[in-house]
Write a structure and sequence with these properties.
Translation Initiation Factor IF3, Alpha-Beta Plaits, three-stranded antiparallel beta sheet
Protein backbone atom coordinates (compact mmCIF):
# COMPACT_ATOMS: atom_id res chain seq x y z
CA UNK A 1 0.00 0.00 0.00
CA UNK A 2 1.55 3.37 -1.03
CA UNK A 3 2.31 5.92 1.63
CA UNK A 4 0.04 9.01 1.72
CA UNK A 5 1.32 12.32 0.37
CA UNK A 6 0.60 15.94 1.06
CA UNK A 7 0.98 18.78 -1.47
CA UNK A 8 1.52 22.29 -0.15
CA UNK A 9 2.31 25.75 -1.50
CA UNK A 10 4.49 28.36 0.15
CA UNK A 11 6.17 31.64 -0.73
CA UNK A 12 9.58 33.03 0.09
CA UNK A 13 10.73 36.63 -0.14
CA UNK A 14 14.16 38.25 -0.02
CA UNK A 15 14.77 42.00 0.15
CA UNK A 16 17.88 43.55 -1.36
CA UNK A 17 19.05 46.96 -2.45
CA UNK A 18 19.72 47.19 -6.20
CA UNK A 19 23.28 47.70 -7.36
CA UNK A 20 22.47 48.61 -10.95
CA UNK A 21 20.20 51.20 -12.56
CA UNK A 22 19.14 51.94 -16.13
CA UNK A 23 18.08 55.32 -17.50
CA UNK A 24 16.39 55.67 -20.89
CA UNK A 25 17.07 58.94 -22.75
CA UNK A 26 15.37 60.09 -25.95
CA UNK A 27 16.78 62.76 -28.26
CA UNK A 28 13.88 64.09 -30.33
CA UNK A 29 14.04 66.66 -33.12
CA UNK A 30 11.61 68.03 -35.70
CA UNK A 31 12.05 69.85 -39.02
CA UNK A 32 10.01 70.54 -42.17
CA UNK A 33 12.14 68.00 -44.09
CA UNK A 34 13.37 64.58 -42.97
CA UNK A 35 16.95 65.55 -43.76
CA UNK A 36 16.79 68.49 -41.38
CA UNK A 37 15.31 66.42 -38.54
CA UNK A 38 18.03 63.78 -39.01
CA UNK A 39 20.86 66.32 -39.09
CA UNK A 40 19.68 68.14 -35.97
CA UNK A 41 19.15 64.84 -34.17
CA UNK A 42 22.70 63.77 -34.99
CA UNK A 43 24.05 67.05 -33.60
CA UNK A 44 22.12 66.80 -30.35
CA UNK A 45 22.88 63.07 -29.99
CA UNK A 46 26.62 63.76 -30.31
CA UNK A 47 26.37 66.41 -27.61
CA UNK A 48 24.42 64.05 -25.35
CA UNK A 49 26.89 61.17 -25.83
CA UNK A 50 29.92 63.35 -25.24
CA UNK A 51 28.57 64.54 -21.88
CA UNK A 52 27.28 61.18 -20.66
CA UNK A 53 30.54 59.40 -21.53
CA UNK A 54 32.34 61.83 -19.24
CA UNK A 55 30.17 60.68 -16.33
CA UNK A 56 30.29 56.90 -16.71
CA UNK A 57 33.18 54.61 -15.85
CA UNK A 58 34.16 50.96 -15.44
CA UNK A 59 31.36 48.56 -16.33
CA UNK A 60 28.89 51.38 -16.91
CA UNK A 61 27.84 51.91 -20.50
CA UNK A 62 25.69 53.87 -22.91
CA UNK A 63 24.26 52.36 -26.09
CA UNK A 64 21.73 53.13 -28.79
CA UNK A 65 18.43 51.44 -28.01
CA UNK A 66 16.27 52.60 -30.92
CA UNK A 67 16.21 55.04 -33.78
CA UNK A 68 13.42 56.10 -36.12
CA UNK A 69 12.38 58.91 -38.46
CA UNK A 70 8.74 59.41 -39.33
CA UNK A 71 6.39 62.03 -40.80
CA UNK A 72 4.21 64.26 -38.65
CA UNK A 73 0.68 64.57 -39.97
CA UNK A 74 -2.02 67.14 -39.43
CA UNK A 75 -5.67 66.93 -40.34
CA UNK A 76 -6.65 69.18 -43.24
CA UNK A 77 -10.23 69.99 -44.07
CA UNK A 78 -11.50 71.44 -47.33
CA UNK A 79 -14.91 71.95 -48.89
CA UNK A 80 -16.08 70.17 -52.00
CA UNK A 81 -19.50 71.53 -52.84
CA UNK A 82 -21.65 71.01 -49.78
CA UNK A 83 -19.38 68.40 -48.30
CA UNK A 84 -16.28 68.79 -46.22
CA UNK A 85 -13.44 66.43 -47.03
CA UNK A 86 -10.79 65.63 -44.46
CA UNK A 87 -7.34 64.34 -45.26
CA UNK A 88 -3.96 64.03 -43.60
CA UNK A 89 -1.06 66.05 -44.87
CA UNK A 90 2.59 65.92 -43.86
CA UNK A 91 3.58 68.99 -41.88
CA UNK A 92 7.12 67.90 -41.03
CA UNK A 93 9.31 65.08 -39.84
CA UNK A 94 10.44 63.84 -36.44
CA UNK A 95 13.62 61.94 -35.59
CA UNK A 96 13.93 60.00 -32.34
CA UNK A 97 17.11 58.41 -31.01
CA UNK A 98 16.77 56.47 -27.74
CA UNK A 99 19.79 55.65 -25.58
CA UNK A 100 20.12 53.16 -22.73
CA UNK A 101 22.50 54.19 -19.94
CA UNK A 102 23.49 51.54 -17.40
CA UNK A 103 24.93 52.77 -14.12
CA UNK A 104 26.65 50.93 -11.26
CA UNK A 105 27.38 53.95 -9.05
CA UNK A 106 23.84 54.78 -7.95
CA UNK A 107 24.77 58.03 -6.22
CA UNK A 108 25.19 59.73 -9.61
CA UNK A 109 21.80 58.81 -11.11
CA UNK A 110 20.47 62.32 -10.52
CA UNK A 111 23.54 63.98 -12.02
CA UNK A 112 23.49 61.79 -15.15
CA UNK A 113 19.76 62.44 -15.57
CA UNK A 114 20.22 66.20 -15.26
CA UNK A 115 23.27 66.41 -17.51
CA UNK A 116 21.65 64.21 -20.15
CA UNK A 117 18.71 66.60 -20.37
CA UNK A 118 20.95 69.65 -20.45
CA UNK A 119 23.18 68.27 -23.20
CA UNK A 120 20.60 67.26 -25.79
CA UNK A 121 18.11 64.64 -24.58
CA UNK A 122 14.46 65.63 -24.80
CA UNK A 123 13.18 63.06 -22.30
CA UNK A 124 14.50 60.71 -19.63
CA UNK A 125 12.72 57.83 -17.99
CA UNK A 126 13.82 55.69 -15.07
CA UNK A 127 15.67 54.55 -13.16
CA UNK A 128 14.87 50.89 -13.74
CA UNK A 129 16.53 48.94 -10.93
CA UNK A 130 18.46 45.71 -11.41
CA UNK A 131 20.85 43.43 -9.51
CA UNK A 132 24.12 41.80 -10.47
CA UNK A 133 23.29 38.99 -7.97
CA UNK A 134 19.79 38.38 -9.32
CA UNK A 135 20.10 34.59 -9.68
CA UNK A 136 21.57 34.20 -6.20
CA UNK A 137 18.77 36.25 -4.63
CA UNK A 138 16.09 34.33 -6.50
CA UNK A 139 17.65 31.09 -5.27
CA UNK A 140 17.57 32.36 -1.67
CA UNK A 141 13.87 33.18 -2.02
CA UNK A 142 13.16 29.69 -3.43
CA UNK A 143 15.05 27.98 -0.59
CA UNK A 144 13.11 30.01 1.97
CA UNK A 145 9.84 29.07 0.26
CA UNK A 146 10.76 25.37 0.36
CA UNK A 147 11.60 25.59 4.08
CA UNK A 148 8.18 27.11 4.72
CA UNK A 149 6.54 24.43 2.61
CA UNK A 150 8.26 21.71 4.61
CA UNK A 151 7.22 23.35 7.88
CA UNK A 152 3.62 23.54 6.71
CA UNK A 153 3.66 19.92 5.55
CA UNK A 154 5.14 18.80 8.87
CA UNK A 155 2.36 20.56 10.75
CA UNK A 156 -0.31 18.89 8.63
CA UNK A 157 1.36 15.49 8.96
CA UNK A 158 1.59 15.83 12.74
CA UNK A 159 -2.10 16.66 12.92
CA UNK A 160 -2.78 13.41 11.05
CA UNK A 161 -0.46 11.40 13.30
CA UNK A 162 2.19 11.04 10.59
CA UNK A 163 5.69 12.28 9.80
CA UNK A 164 7.40 13.51 6.65
CA UNK A 165 9.30 10.69 4.96
CA UNK A 166 10.71 12.65 2.06
CA UNK A 167 10.20 15.16 -0.74
CA UNK A 168 8.86 13.56 -3.92
CA UNK A 169 8.19 16.56 -6.17
CA UNK A 170 8.78 20.29 -6.18
CA UNK A 171 8.23 23.15 -8.64
CA UNK A 172 9.04 26.83 -8.32
CA UNK A 173 7.96 30.11 -9.86
CA UNK A 174 10.14 33.19 -9.44
CA UNK A 175 8.89 36.74 -9.44
CA UNK A 176 11.09 39.77 -9.85
CA UNK A 177 10.22 42.80 -11.93
CA UNK A 178 12.73 45.64 -12.10
CA UNK A 179 10.61 48.55 -10.99
CA UNK A 180 10.51 51.99 -12.50
CA UNK A 181 10.97 54.69 -9.93
CA UNK A 182 8.44 56.84 -11.74
CA UNK A 183 10.63 59.72 -12.87
CA UNK A 184 9.88 60.87 -16.40
CA UNK A 185 11.18 64.29 -17.35
CA UNK A 186 11.22 66.46 -20.42
CA UNK A 187 13.62 69.21 -21.30
CA UNK A 188 12.45 72.55 -19.95
CA UNK A 189 13.66 76.12 -20.63
CA UNK A 190 16.84 76.90 -18.72
CA UNK A 191 16.26 78.74 -15.46
CA UNK A 192 18.40 81.56 -14.14
CA UNK A 193 21.05 80.53 -11.64
CA UNK A 194 22.15 77.07 -10.61
CA UNK A 195 19.64 74.25 -10.29
CA UNK A 196 19.75 71.62 -7.56
CA UNK A 197 20.57 68.07 -8.59
CA UNK A 198 17.61 65.72 -8.93
CA UNK A 199 17.48 63.61 -5.73
CA UNK A 200 17.15 59.83 -6.20
CA UNK A 201 16.43 57.53 -3.25
CA UNK A 202 17.46 53.88 -3.56
CA UNK A 203 15.13 51.50 -1.73
CA UNK A 204 14.87 47.72 -1.47
CA UNK A 205 13.50 45.39 -4.13
CA UNK A 206 11.60 42.16 -3.55
CA UNK A 207 12.68 38.79 -4.91
CA UNK A 208 9.85 36.32 -4.52
CA UNK A 209 9.52 32.61 -5.17
CA UNK A 210 6.48 30.36 -4.96
CA UNK A 211 7.01 26.66 -4.32
CA UNK A 212 4.62 23.78 -4.81
CA UNK A 213 6.00 20.73 -3.01
CA UNK A 214 4.76 17.17 -2.53
CA UNK A 215 5.94 15.27 0.55
CA UNK A 216 5.56 11.57 1.23
CA UNK A 217 4.27 10.77 4.71
CA UNK A 218 4.81 7.79 6.96
CA UNK A 219 3.71 6.68 10.44
Amino acid sequence: MPFPVVEVEAEGEVLAKPDMAVLMFTVETEAPAAKGAVAENARQSESFLAQVKKLIAGEEKVQSYGYRVFPIYRLKEKSQGREKVRSNEIMGYRAQHTFRVELRELTKIGKVSDEGIKSGASRVQGPFWDHSRKEELQQQAAVLALKRARSLAAGLAQEAGLKIKGLTKVSTVHAYRPLLLGVARERAPAAAGGEPETPIEVGEEKFQAKVTATFELAP
